[in-house]
Design brief:
It contains twelve helices and eight strands. Helix content is 45%, strand content 12%. It has an eight-stranded mixed β-sheet, sandwiched between helices. α3 runs antiparallel to α4. By secondary structure, the protein is an alpha/beta fold. β2, α7 and β3 form a beta-alpha-beta unit. It is elongated. Bound molecules: guanosine-5'-diphosphate (GDP) and magnesium ion (MG). The site of guanosine-5'-diphosphate has 18 residues, from α6.
Amino acid sequence: MKLFSSRKKRPDDESTTAANSGRQSGLFSRLARTRDGLFGGITSLFSGDPVDESTLEEIEDHLLVADVGVEVAGKIVNRLRADAASAKQGGQPQLLQSLREVMLEIIQPCNPEELIAPEARPMVIMMVGVNGVGKTTTLAKIAARYKHSGSRVMLAACDTFRAAAIEQLQNWGERLEVPVIAQTHGADAAAVAFDAFSAAKARHCDLLLVDTAGRQHTQSELVEQLVKVKRVLAKADSGIPDQIWLTVDAGNGQNVLSQVHHFDQAVGLTGLCITKLDGTAKGGVVLALADRFGLPIRFIGTGESAEDLSQFDAAEFVDALLPPVS
Ligand SMILES: Nc1nc2c(ncn2[C@@H]2O[C@H](COP(=O)(O)OP(=O)(O)O)[C@@H](O)[C@H]2O)c(=O)[nH]1
Ligand SMILES: [Mg+2]
């Protein structure tokens, strides 16, 4: 089975149809906190009055509180001001339209390209990130999603740093009926990854998801271990890992920018997963990430259970962040 091939429908293709409406998907309700933080208090957005400086200031303040960052907030407000000054802007519905347009322009580069399945071997995705951001949970959600769509999935427990981490992945494996390759606590993470790839190949899996230990990006010996996992996998097959995704917790706000920078320098990132968008008002950081790095955003997490995962779609995301047009 070639799950990732462009010929095959992706498991969540519905997100790319139906005009990508964030309002029609569950995403709209799940992003309520960020949306309220961004625009909830701005009643003048709906007043129908012409846009004035105080409205723009209010919007800028809210953007900053939602952790969009100074640069992006400035960019957005400048654009709104320019639109307001031009014939394009005649009142509030147009203000919302301008907001939608500028936000979409910023986020659009993060729309992920479809993953193409490699020939005759499993696709290998390695997940990295600091402690507690939701790497293991996100991997399990991804496993559930692809298993559900008929792929053969395997998990590699390469967080050997904490005994509980191996158990956590094994529990997910049991729940999802997905095999987990693990060794004991303290085992060499790179050796586990190597074994897991051999096992995934032998069992004709489509997808191997490699969990890794959480670490601060500033802990150099731990980052070295990640580099080693990557190097050892490449010895097994020069094409792997196919993808290295960084999971970040949206609740960490602007701190995620330095995480992306450091992990990218250390291992080279091909994508991001953004978690905990359900529990934070700082989801505006997605705009900051998009503006600064433009890395593909693969998935967003909006809860703790297996189904609380959405494939990222820029238009849908922007729709879910904006207040409903009354
Ligand atoms: N609310 C919420 N909680 C999440 C999400 N993703 C993960 N978590 C929780 O965050 C905690 C840490 O997750 P874990 O996967 O162990 O993080 P790791 O250390 O990066 O592997 C767990 O309690 C997860 O259930 C999410 O999208 N939303
Ligand atoms: Mg973990």
